Amino acid sequence: MENSLTKMIDENSDRLSNLPDALLIHILSLLDAKKVVQTCLLSKRWRNLWASVPSLHFNYEYLSNESERFSNFLTLFLHLRDKAINLHTFKLCYYGSRTCASSMHCSALSNTEAFSIDEMWILYAFKHEVKNLVLKLWENCFKVAPNCLFTCYSLEYMQFNCFSEVKADIVCLPKLRKLSLRNVSMNGDSIHKILSGCPVLETLSIQFVTIRTNSISFQTVKSLRMENCFFYSLSEPTISISCPCLNYLKFVQCTGAITFTDMSRVTDAIITWGKNCKKGYNFDLLEDILGVEYLELIIVYAKEFLDRELKNGTTFNGLKCLLLDLCWNNCNFSILSSFLKRCPKLEKFCLLHTTYSCEVCCCEEKTLGNKWQVAD
After folding, report:
1. Are 247 and 223 in contact (CB under 8 A)?
2. What is the chain's mean pLDDT, rounded?
3. How many other β-carbons are positioned within 10 Å of the β-carbon of residue 219?
4. pLDDT at residue 2 tops 90
5. pLDDT at 109
6. Contact assessment for residue 316 and residue 289, using Cβ atoms and an 8 Å cutoff
7. Is 53 left (phi over 0), alpha (psi -120 to 50) or beta?
8. Global confidence as pTM
9. Using alpha carbons only, what angle is made at residue 204 by residues 198 and 208, rounded to the nearest 5 degrees?
10. For residue 283, what are the CA distances in angstroms to 185, 237, 275, 314, 327?
11. What is the 3-state secondary structure (H, E, C) of the chain?
């Protein structure tokens, strides 16, 4: 009887609380900051664990969409947190008041106040040697990205998504390997400082970015993702883009007068050319990646695209796998046949006709996955 009672008590015990601190803290690192704090009410065992979590996720939507409440919570959280614990990840999603009744109410959230608060939070993360920084900010947070954003000796990954202008004065990100910029604009001086201030940068993603410059040199970048970007040359006829170390390229509906150079190392490429590109298309992309081995082309106006790209008799001697996702309403199969004849080492070919290729007016995520295995 006593053994049965002991067994029953053991089965009903709190097994989760009996786990080691390191494992519990890892579990808490996967939760939003609000939920992390709420765990302190579970028992004495959980009371102080939240203060040692190294990965912080602050999401505005989890705090009833109240700007002042969100700001106070975040500031108090950082103030009470264990200062001896460095940060691994700091993620901030702040979209402002989505329930504003009028534009006048929106303007009540002053840019100055939001900027000063955001800068304090960022500086806290940098002081605690954060490795991963993710900022998804509302367009009224600030018009110009804070300068402190680009000086951190510990940062290895940064994602910055904010409707603002980037004016980088001093850039020192010696350990940054991955950078993602979205919904920003910048001039040539700023992008040059960012690239030169990130000596080990290998992966770069720019989406909905406006760039005003004459030339860009991605000296260390091995993986480049460019989606719905707008390039404006300041004085030259075209913008020269150099990528001497590039292995992977994803190029989706970018517009502007562009000349690519030093792209002989590209072996894997995905190119989307839709309706929005027809007027703003002024470059020969395929001619610059003749060493490509795996190529995916998602094209609306196939004839115009291939006529332009193949006008110089280009031959793709290294191409082994080709996937074409075309809008057949705008496709000329004679030019397609000519394209295939210029791929002497082609091993796999897949021809698709999807709604995506016919209606690709804006950037969408498309995972092709195992479609390479459709045809041998």
Report:
1. yes
2. 80
3. 14
4. no
5. 38
6. no
7. beta
8. 0.82
9. 120
10. 22, 11, 16, 14, 21
11. CHHHHHHHHHHHCCCCCCCCHHHHHHHHCCCCHHHHHHHHHCCHHHCCHHHHCCEEEEEHHHHCCCHHHHHHHHHHHHHHCCCCCCCCEEEEEECCCCCCCCHHHHHCCCHHHHHHHHHHHHHHHHHCCCCEEEEEECCCCCCECCHHHHECCCCCEEEEEEEEEECCCCCECCCCCEEEEEEEEEEHHHHHHHHHCCCCCCEEEEECCEEECCEEECCCCCEEEEECCEEECCCCCCEEEECCCCCEEEEECCEEEEEEECCCCCCEEEEEECCCHHHHEECCCHHHCCCCCEEEEEECCHHHHHHHHCCCCCCCCCCCEEEEEECHHHCCHHHHHHHHHCCCCCCEEEEECCHHHHCCCCCCCCCCHHHHHCCC
Distance, in Å, from the CA atom of 203 to the CA atom of 179, rounded to the nearest integer, reads: 6
Which residue has 């990130």 as its token pair? 198
C-alpha–C-alpha distance, residues 219 and 196, integer Å: 9
Record the tokens describing residue 323, joined without a space. Answer: 């996937």
CA distance 84 to 135: 23
Q: The tokens of 34 are what?
A: 């609000």
Which token pair is 115?
């900027």
Nearest of 249, 309, 248 to residue 277 by alpha carbon? 309
Q: Is the dihedral of CA 49, 53, 59, 65 positive or negative?
A: positive
**Calpha distance 207→364 (Å, rounded):** 11
- As a whole number of angstroms, the distance between CA 33 and CA 371 comes to 39
For the record, the structure tokens of 265 come out as 């190392």
How does residue 351 score in pLDDT terms, banded at 50, 70 and 90? confident
pLDDT of residue 182 exceeding 90: yes
Structure-block tokens of residue 134: 């993710």
Distance CA 231, CA 247 (A): 22
